[in-house]
Amino acid sequence: MDSIGTPCKWRRRTISRAGEFLRKGAEFTLVPVAELVLGKRRILELYLNVVEWGPGVYGAESASRYYYRTSARNVDRQQSAELAAILPLPLKRRPDRMVRYSALILERMRQVGW
């Protein structure tokens, strides 16, 4: 068999690459417009309130209640860094296991004046 594989696999791979190219093109076009209309803070707020933070946990308020049993307003810097540490893989990570990564986040927050 050649390196391409079966015709079906080749077609799927080609279509998915074309779809990815179109999606990236749309992002490239729409992101600057969204930043002008909404602003970066509002985009971040919207994202944090719809992203999945754990199994069935959506939004920053729900995440802070789920992990710390407190409102998002009452989360301290350490807890917010721990929550930020789970975002790349929320279904595989827990804040209490992200000590090293959350320390890096806290250091970066300190560097930028937060």
Structural notes for this entry:
This protein is mainly α and 114 residues long. It folds into two domains: 1-38; 39-114, Biosynthetic peptidoglycan transglycosylase-like (Penicillin binding protein transpeptidase fold, Orthogonal Bundle), CATH 1.10.3810.10. The chain is 64% helix and 4% strand. The chain contains five helices and two strands, in the order ααββααα. The protein has a two-stranded antiparallel ribbon with strand order 1-2. Helix 1 crosses helix 2 and helix 4 packs across helix 5 (99-111). The mean pLDDT is 83.
Judging by the overall fold, what is the CATH architecture of the largest domain?
A: Orthogonal Bundle
Shape designation: globular
Beta strands, count: 2
The tally of structural domains comes to 2
The CATH homologous superfamily of the largest domain corresponds to Biosynthetic peptidoglycan transglycosylase-like
Strand coverage percent: under 5%
Q: Find the structural class using helix and strand composition.
A: mainly alpha
Radius of gyration: 19 Å
Give the biggest beta sheet: 2 strands, antiparallel
Helix content class: 55-70%
Order of strands, widest sheet: 1-2
